[in-house]
Amino acid sequence: MKLLTHNFVSSRFLKDVKGGYPLKLSAQKIETKDVEFNEEFIKNIIPKCDFSALRSACESINEAANLPQTLPENWIENEELLKELHRLLFCIDIIEGELQCPDTARIFPIKQGIPNLLVEDEQK
Amino acid sequence: MFQMASFKIKPEHSGPPELYYNETEASKYASNSHITAIQHEMAERALELLALPEGKCGLLLDIGCGTGMSSEVLQDNGHCFIGLDVSLPMLTIAKDDEDLESGDFVWQDMGKGMPFRPGSFDGAISISAIQWLCHANSSNENPRKRLYFFFQSLYGCLGRGSRAVFQFYPENDAQCDLIMSQATKAGFNGGLVVDYPESTKKKKIYLVLMTGGVAQLPQALNEENDEGRSQIDNAGRSFVWNSRKNEKIVKGSKAWIDQKRLRQAKQGKEVRHESKYSGRKRKPKF
């Protein structure tokens, strides 16, 4: 699972969960893949991303070293930052790990890089 | 998922999708070039119907992405995507595909809701997936509720003014109406776009749903704006908005008389011969 996905996934679909965001991330196995850097791509996706959720996700997997506390205003001209954001959002792939709903503490396992958000009805 | 020949039963009748698309079925599916070609074509058309602002790449949702064939189309057109499917074997194939680098996959049943925060996506496409929601696979599944819940959660995670396009093979008008009514109830407006309505084989049905706001409707294509399109021939495309399939025939009209006459003839009753004068308006008598 990429951090891009983590930034948009929420457990709102669970019964009685209003917020369900961001999901708490913990990872056992991480891989880094080479994905071509596309500046336009990143420029378009950053305004949609929740920066604080991205930052806390990066912290939980110890990748936040080069990430500022908040998104600087001139981020769009900062190529180094764009490249770092690209690396974080697209290149890091969490192969084994867990997502946890902040409201109900429900665990969603991540296996073979795919987060499992299926819930059985009785637990819904 | 593809259209079965008429002598075969539709796959959605055989059981839940996560059981139908097992490992053998998934690998069969991914390696079938015919399916790949059709899926590509439909995904291209669905993307076109999304009518995204030109030149802008967005984040799109691929519902029922399967082995990622439709996601590939999204990527090739410069978009990021998140694919969602209920079959793990299908997703594993998609995830292992090195080419699908600008997106990611999530394992979830669409009937249980879209697991995304509000306003996440610039649009959603779904190729041959929604008909799976119309069947109950266990006693606690209610297709109507599942459809409604699905549309409701989808509405939430789409950005305002964005669209969702579903390609599907409806079994009958009732199924079409069921899907449409639940989508409308969830707040969407939109309608069906029917490509090649005359051809049984080529006929494709797309449900175009829009989230609030004033949005431009997809244009029915005709010969004048047909230039520069190389892949899809648009002959005879029609547009059906809010189609009410079983429009009731007005009592006393010519069509009503004809229908009644035919029905009685069928029952073996004696009827008047067919006449162009039946049901005509008479001049007022003095």
Give a nutshell description of this structure.
With about 120 residues, chain A is an alpha+beta fold. Chain A contains 4 helices and 4 strands.
Structure description:
The complex is a heterodimer of chains A (124) and B (286). Chain A is α+β, with helices and mostly antiparallel strands. Chain A has a single domain (3-116), classed as N-terminal domain of TfIIb. In chain A, 29% of the residues lie in helices and 20% in strands. Chain A has helices at 3-8, 39-45, 51-60, 79-91, and strands at residues 24-32, 92-100, 107-111, 114-115. The longest helix of chain A has 13 residues, at 79-91. Chain A is globular, with a radius of gyration of 15 Å. Chain B is an alpha/beta fold and 286 residues long. Chain B has 2 domains: 11-240, Vaccinia Virus protein VP39 (Rossmann fold), CATH 3.40.50.150; 248-286, no CATH class. Helices cover 31% and strands 19% of the residues of chain B. Chain B is built from 8 helices and 8 strands, in the order αααβαβαββαβαβββα. Chain B has helices spanning 17-20, 23-31, 33-50, 69-76, 88-96, 143-157, 173-185, 254-266; strands at residues 59-63, 80-85, 103-107, 121-127, 158-168, 188-195, 204-211, 238-240. The termini of chain B are far apart. At the A-B interface, α1, α2 and β4 of A face α5, β3 and α6 of B.
Main sheet specs of chain A: 4 strands, antiparallel
- How much of the polypeptide of chain A forms β-strand, as a percent range? 15-25%
CATH class of chain A: Mainly Beta
Under CATH, the topology of chain A can be stated as: N-terminal domain of TfIIb
What fraction strand of chain B? 15-25%
- Radius of gyration of chain B, CA atoms, in whole angstroms: 22 Å
Number of helices of chain B: 8
Q: Order of strands side by side in the largest beta sheet of chain B?
A: 3-2-1-4-5-7-6-8
By DSSP (H or I, 4+ residues per run), the number of helices of chain A equals 4
**How many β-strand runs of chain A?**
4
